[in-house]
Write a structure and sequence with these properties.
- By secondary structure, this protein is mainly alpha-helical.
- The chain is built from two helices and no strands.
Length: 47
């Protein structure tokens, strides 16, 4: 579990994530990584 796993507000998301199939988790992580890679830091609200 990550450093956020002890946060009580994240109990339900962690529980739901654990119920996902073994195939769905890596696909979702890949989509999230692609999304983060495509963020434009120079755009509005960029960091």
């Amino acid at each position: 579990m990550s450093e956020l796993g002890g946060n009580p507000r994240l109990t339900m998301p962690y529980r739901n994530w654990g119920r996902w199939s073994a195939n769905a988790q890596p696909e979702t992580r890949a989509q999230a990584a692609a999304f983060l890679d495509n963020l434009d830091a120079g755009g509005p609200g960029g960091y």
